[in-house]
Specification:
Layout lengths: L16 H7 L9 E10 L2 E7 L8 E2 L2 E3 L6 H13 L4 E5 L14 E10 L3 H7 L6 E14 L2 E8 L2 E10 L9 E5 L8 H13 L3
Parallel strand pairs: 1-6
Antiparallel strand pairs: 1-2, 1-4, 2-3, 2-7, 5-6, 7-8, 8-9, 9-10
Length: about 210
């Protein structure tokens, strides 16, 4: 029997794992940044922030932000939700990853979105939200959504404010089971967040 302490495994270049890791150059490959976004539904309301900085300054968006080196995407989602809106008593379900190379104008950023639902009192959650961190505003908007012929039309309302947008459901890429979505311009949501809404809303329809 091989004893790895006496006979360490070597790759085709004759390196042990320890030697390989010591010489590994992570900077040889471009490393995309990773973010987490949270779509929180409470009844017929959805939590939105208004972006307080570039890019998409002033646009509506979902709470979210960059994943820190010492946390998982799940942990980042919970942290960003709490930091930006004060909401914390939620259950999270991961949605398909959004990774289009041009989805963010800053750099190559892949986002992992989550569907969020209250884990405690919905009323307490509705009253607990306030804008923090880099969000200029955070509040629940009532919404109505209707899917017809693969076109999802959404109306958002908050007081006297009303916004509308539409998202087209596209067939999955060959070899994939995940649907794709494309927002129909113009759209009040930042970047591809209208498509993220569609993914979360469709998952919500499957939730008991």
């Amino acid at each position: 029997m091989n004893d790895e302490k006496q006979y360490p495994l070597r790759d085709k270049n004759g390196l042990t794992e320890k030697e390989f890791l010591a010489s590994y150059r992570a900077d040889r490959y471009e490393r995309p940044s990773v973010t987490a976004d949270v779509v929180l539904f409470v009844g017929e309301s959805v939590l939105l922030i208004r972006r307080g900085g570039h890019p998409f300054l002033g646009k509506l968006a979902f709470p979210g932000g960059f994943v820190e080196p010492n946390e998982t995407v799940f942990q980042a989602a919970k942290r960003e939700l709490q930091e930006e809106t004060g909401a914390s008593d939620v259950l999270l379900k991961q949605l398909p990853v959004f990774s289009a190379p041009d989805r963010d104008p800053r750099t190559r950023i892949i986002t992992v979105p989550f569907l969020a639902l209250p884990s405690g009192s919905p009323e307490a959650l509705l009253s607990a939200v306030s804008a923090n961190d880099d969000a200029a505003d955070a509040s629940f908007w009532t919404f109505s959504a209707r899917m017809q012929d693969d076109l999802l039309t959404v109306t958002l309302e908050r007081g006297s404010e009303k916004e509308r947008f539409a998202v087209r459901r596209l067939p999955p890429e060959r070899g994939s089971l995940d649907p794709r979505y494309a927002a129909v311009s113009p759209c009040p949501l930042a970047g591809d967040h209208a498509a993220i809404f569609a993914a979360a809303w469709e998952e919500l329809q499957k939730t008991p």
